[in-house]
């Protein structure tokens, strides 16, 4: 995990380092001076704390709302998943959503009902309940406060049977059934509080608590994550003197066929199999290579997709990314994609210029390409280490490994081996004979056979442990990849794992988590959407707008990029974290999801899989045909002026299988409807390789020789497009209508 220096953070936050050191210490985050290194968790904790404080101060200087309110607000914003389109827009904003309505359901009791919470704060007799932790402006007390609060909660845990557990958000109907009171009764009480709610409306825990207390029913917020984080908090409290250097964890990325797998294999072969006597190399998802002055752990799944998927799950296991670029091919689209994924994660990059053995190897061309993407090679006066290598001849591999060690030393990667282990699940599967088999990467502590491990909803005692060479181990320290047996179920790759003191604790955490999984899934993401941008900026939850631009040509990419970056103002910075020519890919969507970003497409379309992933991950994809409209929308969204009036609904897609010219009708596409239906009245667009070729109306729709009003999925038809005769086999015809969004 990379460290962040105090002075870097201070620069980012525009405050003096000295002041930052004081603020960190007040939060019990150890920092001596501007050179002190902070972990990502510490920075995240500090930033969260700071944004909580600023939102509290901006909301009300007198009454501080509870921490949960902020979370609830996040939940509200996460409900908005849209794919918007302004392709045919003139002066109005047009929004497209495949099937889902784009309206946001208000959550009663969150910040738009502040008076209710205030009321609650002043008159309720239950303010000593463990959950309600008012945030004090006094930073120095916050940490202690939350810990003692946790202890209090622990004692209350024993009395949980007396209290009814409620999630952070639930419908009026659910509350009624949980506390065994009629919904009408609850609605009446809500009305007394000034809240007009229906039975299906969501209310937050604070509101539910007020209602319950009026009914003299005691409720407690079920929040296992808080308890889990307090267990994990102990991992953050590391004393510098206990830390020793740990091996770096490396991910290999790069363009297809540039030699990622070959390079990993070459390193493994020369450094592992040859030297480990009788070592049978196992594929366990990661392996460690020993070299003279240290060791290096490689993640064995090449490619940025795996890297970003892990990051999206909150796992940042990679310390350094190796960007493989073939010396004969140079920087290619996926090279750029990979380097942007690494940059977005803040991971240092070392470039391996591979295939140096081929006759037309041209490392300078690679360096030129890198420079164009702001990676300036060291020998060209920049900071990017470039190592010429050949996975085939082994040339340069030792230098590459040395450079990895060098960069990792600069990162001061350290961990405490003398504690219970914590880390990340790299991969896991069910083995018929052995049960759940998981590959874990230990980030800190030492994992021992017999330890009780928890990961997500899974737990178990480590029955056996192997290293990547299949050797049985009794214990394994920081950065070691190990395969373990003994978990009750298969954990999820990317999930955190940690060792707890006993089986009972593990079982409790697992059971609670299982209970809350549904709730957690709802709460999981709060991605950036243009519709909600203004609120998020105001809440202080968004300081950076991360945008991915995909367009039909490099000129448009550049024009959009420059104009969007220029929108940066005092409050928010617009970052283009990735751009490229071509359709919107799943990888783009995953990068947006992992970076809390949104995607702007100009004259391009997302493929079917990208749309599905975007819907699942709630990534906002905005599609435009006029550059100005894209800029105008982002600008309007930043000011809270974005007000979509129409949404586009895709009705169906047909694939062009054959084309023929028909006298008087022009070009007709013999097509097959693959999705939805195509109706004569719909508008259509033609998509070729993810790029929109044209948009227009249907001039003729026929089933065999007869005119058809509409043609459903699974049928063939002939489609003619008004004033367009350039249809080609393989084109997609997407039919859509515009629907007005009721205000
Ligand atoms: N001459 C030469 N060929 C290489 C070298 N490294 C890889 N290759 C060849 O390049 C091709 C692609 O190598 P891979 O290792 O599969 O590339 P990759 O980047 O992992 O490819 P994907 O997994 O498809 O993304 C193979 O035919 C390799 O044999 C090298 O150093 N020199």
TrEMBL record:
Locate the compositionally biased regions of type Basic and acidic residues: 138-158
The entry's GTP-binding residues are 254-261, 300-304, 354-357
Q: Name one Pfam family in it.
A: GTP_EFTU
Q: What is its main location?
A: cytoplasm
* Residue ranges, annotated region (G-domain): 248-396
Does the record's keyword annotation contain Phosphoprotein?
Answer: no
According to the record, the residues making up region (Disordered) are: 52-158
Residue stretches making up the Tr-type G domain: 245-414
Q: Which PROSITE patterns match?
A: G_TR_2, IF2
> Which InterPro entries does the record cross-reference, listed alphabetically?
EF-G-like_DII, IF2_II, IF2_N, P-loop_NTPase, Small_GTP-bd, T_Tr_GTP-bd_dom, TF_IF2_bacterial-like, TIF_IF2
Family matches, as PANTHER family: TR-TYPE G DOMAIN-CONTAINING PROTEIN, TRANSLATION INITIATION FACTOR IF-2-RELATED
Task: Tell me the protein's name.
Answer: Translation initiation factor IF-2
Protein species of origin: Alkalibaculum sporogenes
Gene designation per UniProt: infB
